[in-house]
Amino acid sequence: MTITWRRLAEPDFPLLSRWLAEPHVARWWNHETSIEAVTRDFLPAARGEEPSEDLLAFLDGSPFAFVQRCRLRDFPEYVTELAAVMDVPEGGMTIDYLIGDRGLTGRGLGPALIRAVVAETWERYPDATAIIVPVPAANRASWRALEKAGLRKVAEGELEPDNPIDDRSHYVYRIDRPAS
């Protein structure tokens, strides 16, 4: 099993739109799924006009997942929100992720994807000190994937949910850069 990725590009938007419409994704991402909405929200990062990265992940050459990654310092309002529940480290980054095809969930691919992105983050961002991932407490599959990938729960608290049907209860997971 080989996981690779590249920056999301505009021709990928129909695929991302389909994935965002999948019930197992829509429940947690709560994103408009029209091509117009996907274009509006993902084109700036695809063009490199935003400091975040949107990555299309491939399993043995076939697209299977989507990852967002960014430096926390590039989004000060997010740092302020996180700081209410934990000390946010200088050099911290965050990721978000989804597996597009429901048939690929529950097979260990989530933890494998997270481990791969974490390893590549240390390589690509030498100044990254930690990866911080808040997840709704109700999203057991997501926080279990983080645990299986080696992240540890470091905080619990109230954060703004992506889906307004969720309460504000979140767990915050963290992994630190390994010592050299």
Commentary on this structure:
- The chain is an alpha+beta fold.
- Helix content is 34%, strand content 29%.
- The chain contains six helices and seven strands.
- The chain has a seven-stranded mixed β-sheet.
- A hairpin with a 2-residue loop joins strand 2 and strand 3 (62-71).
- The mean pLDDT is 93.
List the helices and strands and how they pair.
Layout: E1 3-7, H1 13-21, H2 23-29, H3 35-46, E2 53-59, E3 62-71, H4 76-83, E4 92-99, H5 109-124, E5 130-136, H6 140-148, E6 152-158, E7 169-176
Parallel strand pairs: 4-5
Antiparallel strand pairs: 1-2, 2-3, 3-4, 5-7, 6-7
Helix pairs in contact: 1-3
Q: What oligomeric state do these chains adopt?
A: single chain
Low-pLDDT residue spans: none
User: How much of the sequence is in beta strands?
Assistant: 25-35%
Task: Output the number of helix runs.
Answer: 6
Short description:
It contains six helices and seven strands.
Features:
single chain, 7 strands, 6 helices, 7-stranded mixed β-sheet, 180 residues, alpha+beta
